[in-house]
């Protein structure tokens, strides 16, 4: 446990140091008058973009630590889950389309109610969708399928599948994909993000009494599929 904690602290330090070092370098070059006037706006934009990246990292670390805290509690409310998902995907549609992705939906027209924390559940979905967008090329098809599932146990669950036909996840990462900082140190760069997104998603979904699993392969034309199970209200 202590070794894992030390590695996590080292990973956090690495991820924070990278954009800070870049910001310091650009700022010093500007302060020392080393940048031509016509190039200064470009450098200021780079500083701004790196500061946004740094803010995103800090927010992600904060969210992860908050979920780990024993006093954390979800703000549950009863919602119609199918409509919630349609509204969520409508909010994300323009961004997904602008990234060059195709979005394919299969959501029932009837009603199903779940007890959820809407803010946290959106965060869980965001992390999974963002993971697909980040690691796949333009033209990738993102597929969202929602069904009722009664095979998990005696209880009833809503099954939400978020899948894509992109490059897939390396086999050596599939067993640990939901662990924090799963990306190897040699390939950790600022573009890779914090490595906490899917771990946060798992914590949120399990906090709802559900679970999440990864399936890989060519089933139905999709290489990567995250299957999420959320219990129906009253189960």
UniProtKB/TrEMBL annotation:
Coiled coil: none annotated. SMART domains: HATPase_c, HisKA. Residues 11-234 form the Histidine kinase domain. The keyword Transcription does not apply. GO terms for cellular component: plasma membrane. Its main location: membrane. It catalyses: ATP + protein L-histidine = ADP + protein N-phospho-L-histidine. Its EC number is 2.7.13.3. It is found in: Membrane. The keyword Nucleotide-binding does not apply. GO terms for biological process: cellular response to phosphate starvation. InterPro entries: BphY/WalK/GraS-like (IPR050351), HATPase_C_sf (IPR036890), HATPase_dom (IPR003594), His_kinase_dom (IPR005467), HisK_dim/P_dom (IPR003661), HisK_dim/P_sf (IPR036097), Sig_transdc_His_kin-like_C (IPR004358). CDD domains: HATPase, HisKA. GO terms for molecular function: phosphoprotein phosphatase activity; phosphorelay sensor kinase activity. Keywords: Kinase, Phosphoprotein, Transferase, Two-component regulatory system. This is histidine kinase.
